């Protein structure tokens, strides 16, 4: 059994190694150009994704390939997100495939994401077709890049296909390699149904649309289905394929990639990675590796204008309809009033949601510093998890605190190894391995997740002049000596400014925060003290000096544009301020904890 004429595959690559460009070239070659644009429209790809040049989600695409001699093949090209926040989605999309094209930029060689992605493919037992891309570049070294693939990942260099998504050279070879090297899907269409959910989105009319890969059996309209991890049953309305956009079809047999609408109202009921089977005729085991979507980064979101609370809640509810990985619950802060504690997959995910709230729902928000989830054991033996500094117990009640760790992989030219190791040390990292790959080095470290959350990537890039790359995965919890630092403005503790930090950094961080706050809080008619405390003990102090003269007085002379700029800047700043008694604190202050400058 099986479907000898189907090939299900994905393209994986380090960011900017040319995945989208090559995919377009393949589409064009198979007479589907323009389809990509249509596809973007059908699924309403976020404007934000385009601006940031990253792909978060897009539908698979079904293509027909006719070989010389007339043999016909169906290619299902399944896209994968391009950011580490969404690595679980990447792994599920790969699980829906039999093979991947592993792209490497011929002028850059293997980068951190190349390695991590290749291992995701290997873990899913996929056939890897190595493609050295951008060979048209003057700086291209295709043989060198192929050699690196062999050294690092163990793919024979002579297997690499040399190509350019820009000129189209090598594309016919890639299409042939897909047919020759990537196995056809196996699976018995008469067996009990077993299908893997690898993506989903919410449609206002049809409910949640699931993207599935049928592994065994056949999925048809009117089937009664059972979701194995959710433990829920649904009736299938429609099934279909991607052509692109959603095209209604008759059935999806084993081997097929397609979509299902089954009147599912709540996206939490049909999570990525879950297995679909028949309600009556069940498959024995669910597809392995299911993980419920679990936020790992939390931040408080508060409307600048308290009147907007209801509007914010409605907007959050709408966003959640389409995003099983996002959650929120009401939270009250003495300082900020009513808001929501929100959970995200990572900082990029958090930024995207925040930007959408501001742009699409026209909300003005204050966001508190992002925090990871800590596991606290109290002296009375009780264990609980918290990501909210406001809930962090005092030291005398704590037996032990654990924090999440990641395994971080960094690729860096050998000239920068020293400074990068210094950076990793400063971030409390411990080295696991160090591999030389030509003139570059792969460093593998275990690092507390909190330490790389905010500006680590920027620091890495600036220290290495843009040459270093990184990727990581969560590896569980380790003990850490963590403290809560409180911030007081004008004698009042501002709960929303509290942060949890490692003991070794608490003093320097306290210093940094108060200095930054003193800088960004506008001057008042009186001096305002800003203090950092641990357990009530003051560890740092700064003062916002009293207001003296108009800022515009500095721009003597007729420099109108500069005055205008200054006024605009002030206006912008004001829009995001919160009043605390007599003192206004701008949004910047809430992120002061994170900035390194
Ligand atoms: P993400 O979607 O962010 O992961 O990026 P990507 O891997 O899809 O890269 P994309 O296709 O957007 O290409 C990145 C940059 O490289 C763009 O500026 C492209 O124009 C350029 N580029 C892509 N392919 C080629 C190629 O074959 N040759 C040359 N010279 N440039 C290319």
Distance between the termini: 62 Å
- As residue ranges, the low-confidence spans are 38-46, 552-558
> Largest beta sheet, briefly?
8 strands, antiparallel
Share of helical residues? 25-40%
Q: Based on Cα principal axes, name the global outline.
A: globular
Radius of gyration: 27 Å
Mean pLDDT: 86
Give the number of helices.
15
Number of strands: 34
Q: What is the oligomer described by this structure?
A: single chain
Structural class: alpha+beta
Q: Major sheet: order of its strands?
A: 11-10-16-7-8-15-12-13
In this entry the ligands are: guanosine-5'-triphosphate
| Beta-strand content bin | 25-35%
Question: Can you offer a commentary on this structure?
Answer:
This protein has 15 helices and 34 strands. The strands form 7 sheets. It has an 8-stranded antiparallel sheet. It has a 6-stranded mixed sheet with strand order 2-3-1-4-5-6, sandwiched between helices. 45% of the residues are buried. It is of the alpha+beta class and 597 residues long. α6 links the parallel β5 and β6. Guanosine-5'-triphosphate binds next to α1.
